[in-house]
C-alpha cells in the first residue's frame, strides 16, 4: 500500500485549523432541545386546494359515516338535466371518489375490512358517472343526426326560422335568446362559450353570417341604421354576431362598423376563416388576461 503524504483540503478542516483557541458558537448561546415534529406544528390554510381530498377537513371517516341508502342517478333522471348541470354533477362525483379512494387506501394498508364500505359507495358514484356519459353520448348522437338531416333540408329550416324571427314583435326575451343559441350550436356547431380548442371552419363561418345578418335585418330599422345598406364582409358580420341579440347590441356593433369602414378594407372570402379565427383567439387571450389580473388582485 502506498504511503499517505497529503490529504485533500476541506472547508471544515481549514476552518478548524484557523479557529484554534476560538469557539464556533458563542459560549453565551444556550442550546435548547430540538422541537419534535408533530401534527400540531403543521398549519394549513383553510382555502388550501388539498382540502378538497378530505371530507369536512377530517383525516378519515368511519364506516358508519359512509354507509348509505341512496342510489345512483338514473339515465331517465339525468336526461332532464342541462349540460351545465351534468358537468357540475360529474365533478362533484369525481371529487367524492377521490376522497373515498384516499380513505379506502388507508384502511386497506392496515388490513381493515372497513375499506369495503368505501368501495361500495365509490362504485355507486361510478354508476352515476357512467350514466352521465351515456346521456352525453345520446345528445352527441342526436346532434350528429340533426346535422346530417340539415344537409338535405337545412336551407328550408333556416328560411322558416328567419321568417318567424323577423315577424315576431318581441324577440328580446330569454326564450328567443335560447332559440338562437340552440340554432347556432345545433346547425353550425358554434358554442355559447369559447375555449382554446375552438377551430373555425366553413360551417362556423356560415353560422356567423346567418346570425349576424339576421340580427341586422331585425333591428336596423328600429335603431335607424338602414343607412349601412347591409353588412359588407365577414368582419362586419362577426361584429354584429358577437354582440347581444338586442337593439342596443346592434347599435354598439354599428358604432364599431362605422369606425371599421373608414379603413376601406373588405375581407375576401378566401381569408374569412383565418380572420375569424384571429378574432376568436384575441377574445380568448383577452379573457385569460382579465382572469389573471383578477387572480393577482385577490392574492
Automatic annotation (TrEMBL):
Keyword annotations for this protein?
A: Mitochondrion, Ribonucleoprotein, Ribosomal protein
Q: Which residues cross the membrane?
A: none
Annotated Gene Ontology cellular component terms: mitochondrial large ribosomal subunit
- Entry's localization field: Mitochondrion
Taxonomically, the superkingdom here is Eukaryota
- Is Mitochondrion set as a keyword in this record? yes
Keyword Ribosomal protein among record annotations: yes
Question: Which Pfam families does the record associate with it?
Answer: MRP-L47
Q: Which Gene3D superfamilies match?
A: 6.10.140.1190, 6.10.330.20
Alphabetical GO biological process terms? mitochondrial translation
InterPro entries the record matches: MRP-L47_sf (IPR038340), Ribosomal_uL29_mit (IPR010729)
Q: GO molecular function terms here?
A: structural constituent of ribosome
Q: Give the family from UniProt.
A: Belongs to the universal ribosomal protein uL29 family.
Question: What is the name attached to this protein's record?
Answer: Large ribosomal subunit protein uL29m
Query: To which species is this protein native?
Result: Dekkera bruxellensis (Brettanomyces custersii)
